[in-house]
Write a structure and sequence with these properties.
Blueprint lengths: L2 H12 L6 E3 L10 E3 L4 H15 L3 E6 L12 H11 L3 E6 L11 H20 L2 E4 L5 H4 L10 E2 L28 E5 L5 H13 L4 E5 L6 H12 L4 E2 L5 H9 L3 E4 L16 H8 L4 E4 L15 E3 L4 H13 L1 H19 L1 H12 L11
Length: 370
C-alpha cells in the first residue's frame, strides 16, 4: 500500500468515514481495513464485488500508480472487475498518478505495450462516474475517453513524508548555505550519473560539502550508484530505507534538495505534482532543484517555487547547485515560495477535501462507508 493511499485513508478516517483498501501488496496484510486480493486474475473481480457487498460499499476509488497493481502497468482484470462492480450498482471513480503509455526506450514491443495501457485506461475511464489525475499532461489521454465522466479533475499529491510544516516563512538559511558547510540531499532511487559527477566536482572545490542519499535504491540501481560514486570520487552518506518519521528528521538537516528526473529525447518526463517528495520538500521549507519536462505543469514556476533545469547534464547541475549555495537570498526566496505553494495546494487538508468533494462522499449520508 502506497503512502498516498495511507494518507488519504487517514484523512478520511479523521473525517469520520470507514475506509477499506484492496491492494496487491502483501506487506500491507494484517493492517486494519486493508484487504490483499488473491493472485488468480479471474478471482479478483469476483473477490472485489463480494467485498463490496459484504461491507455495503457504495463507492469505489480506483487509484492507479505504476507498481501498485502490476509491475507492467494496469492489468486487464481491472476492466473486468470494474464491469462487475458497475453491474452490481457500485459507483466508481479513477485517480491516475501515472498512465504508462510512454516508454523512454523505443521499440515495437514498448509501443504495443503503451498502446495496450492506453486502451485499458480508456475502458476503465468509460466505466467510471468520474476521473481525476495528478498530472495535467495526462488530460490529452484521459479526456477523449471520459465522455460521461467529464470533466477530468486535477488533484495534486500531498506530502508522502510527515515533515514539520510551519505556517510562517521558512527559516533563514543564513551562513549554512555556504558551499563548504551545506548538506545536499537527493533520493537514492533518482541517482542520475550526471548528478553524481556534478556533486563530485563540487566536493573537489569545496571539501566540506556534505551529500546524503535518502532512502533505498533497489538493484540494479544500487550497484550502479555505488560504481558511479567510486568512478567520480564522490563521498556521500547513504541512509538506506528509513521509516517515514526518521526520513522526515533527515530532511530537517538538509540545506538543499535535488530532485533529478529522467528525460526522454524530446523532453518527456520531468517533475510534476504527482511527486510526494516535492510536496514534502516544499512543506519542510527546502529550496529545490528539479528537472523540468513535458509533464511539469504550469503551476510550478521557475525562480518562484523551485529552480528548474531543462537538461540533466553534469555542467547544468553543477552550475545550478553552485548558484543556490552561493546565493542564500535566492535559495531563501525559493524555500518561502515552495512553502506558500504547499499550504495553498499540497496539504492533506486541501487535497483531502478535493477528493471528498470530487467523489461526493458527503452525499452518502450517515453511512460514511466508501
Amino acid at each position: 500500500m502506497g503512502d498516498h493511499s495511507a494518507g488519504l485513508r487517514a484523512y478520511l478516517q479523521d473525517r469520520g468515514y470507514t475506509v477499506h483498501i484492496a491492494t496487491g501488496t502483501a506487506e500491507a496484510a494484517g493492517q486494519d481495513g486493508v484487504h490483499v486480493y488473491p493472485f488468480d486474475a479471474h478471482d479478483r473481480a469476483r473477490w472485489l464485488t463480494a467485498l463490496a457487498e459484504q461491507w455495503g460499499i457504495q463507492k469505489v476509488l480506483w487509484q492507479y500508480s505504476p507498481y501498485a497493481l502490476h509491475p507492467k502497468g494496469i492489468p486487464w482484470w481491472v476492466v473486468q472487475a470494474a464491469k462487475a462492480l458497475k453491474a452490481s450498482g457500485v459507483r466508481q471513480y479513477a485517480y491516475f498518478h501515472e498512465v504508462r503509455i510512454r516508454y523512454a526506450v523505443p521499440g515495437l514491443f514498448n509501443k504495443w505495450r503503451a498502446w495496450q495501457q492506453q486502451q485499458i485506461a480508456s475502458r476503465l475511464v468509460n466505466l467510471c462516474d468520474s476521473v481525476a489525475t495528478s498530472i495535467p499532461f495526462y488530460l490529452q489521454y484521459l479526456e477523449p475517453a471520459a465522455k460521461k465522466a467529464a470533466p477530468v479533475h486535477i488533484i495534486p499529491v500531498p506530502s508522502n513524508i510527515p515533515v514539520q510544516a510551519a505556517a510562517g516563512a521558512a527559516p533563514s538559511l543564513g551562513d549554512s548555505a555556504a558551499p563548504g558547510e551545506a548538506v545536499i540531499a537527493l533520493f537514492a532511487n533518482r541517482a542520475l550519473p550526471s548528478v553524481v559527477e556534478a556533486l563530485a566536482k563540487l566536493q573537489q572545490t569545496h571539501p566540506g560539502l556534505q551529500v546524503v542519499w535518502l532512502g533505498h535504491a533497489a538493484e540494479p540501481e544500487r550497484t550502479a550508484l555505488q560504481e558511479q560514486m567510486v568512478q567520480h570520487g564522490l563521498y556521500a552518506r547513504c541512509t538506506g530505507a528509513l521509516p517515514l518519521p526518521l526520513l522526515a528528521q533527515e530532511m530537517e538537516q538538509v540545506t538543499l534538495l535535488l530532485l533529478p528526473q529522467p528525460l526522454g529525447p524530446r523532453g518527456e518526463g520531468g517533475i510534476s505534482l504527482k511527486n510526494g517528495t516535492l510536496a514534502a520538500a516544499f512543506g519542510a521549507g527546502l529550496p529545490v532543484i528539479a528537472t523540468r519536462g513535458d509533464m511539469t505543469g504550469p503551476e510550478l514556476r521557475h525562480g518562484t517555487h523551485l529552480h528548474f533545469l531543462d537538461d540533466n547534464s553534469a555542467d547544468a547541475w553543477q552550475e545550478a547547485i553552485a548558484r543556490l549555495l552561493s546565493e542564500p537570498g535566492y535559495a531563501q526566496s525559493l524555500a518561502e515560495g515552495g512553502r506558500r505553494f504547499y499550504h495553498q495546494r499540497l496539504t492533506w487538508n486541501v487535497a483531502g477535501r478535493q477528493f471528498e468533494e470530487w467523489i461526493g462522499w458527503h452525499d452518502i449520508g450517515n453511512t460514511k462507508s466508501p
